[in-house]
Amino acid sequence: MAAGRRGRAAAALLLLPVVITGCGGADSTGTVGPGAGPAAAASAAGTAATATVLPAAERPPAPDTAGRDLAGRDLALRSYRGKVVVLNVWGSWCAPCRAEAPELEALRGALESRGVRLVGVNVRDRSTGPAVGFERTYGLHYPSIHDPDGKLLLAYPPALLNPQAIPSTLVVDRQGRIAAAVSGPVTRAQLEPLVTRVAEEAP
Q: Does this model's pTM top 0.90?
């Protein structure tokens, strides 16, 4: 029992402030649904939120997210084992996703040589056309799984990835575990220290 309390306390201490506003996570009254977590709640209120950073001993395995990319090719998160993966959930309809996209592409270019890969999960775009146009507009050079119904997101712990909070970003370590989670749009400056920290961990 005491060890569990210490683990939870350690996780709570590793919270980094990030100012976010998102496309989802609240209803028209501003109420956040069950399981939305503190980051989504803060986003709905329009206040400063947090990026949850998990100590290595507390990291859950990332679900085996797999599907077809926007070009119709098979794409699976497991194929990146041994790399640090920045998994970004986005939609072409989402204004904060548009603001975030160039920041993520800049992060990809800066950290790819260090074993970091970006993978997107495109949600709520019924067809791939708008999503492909989004990639072209923002010059994105990383693949995205097409998940029009958002079903893949349901496999993730809701406290770390709320399916209603778009955009959302997870950092997955080289062992395939969730190391950090951010609900809402981020900049390269906000995300790069988190990703670099995970990339510098011993394999």
A: no
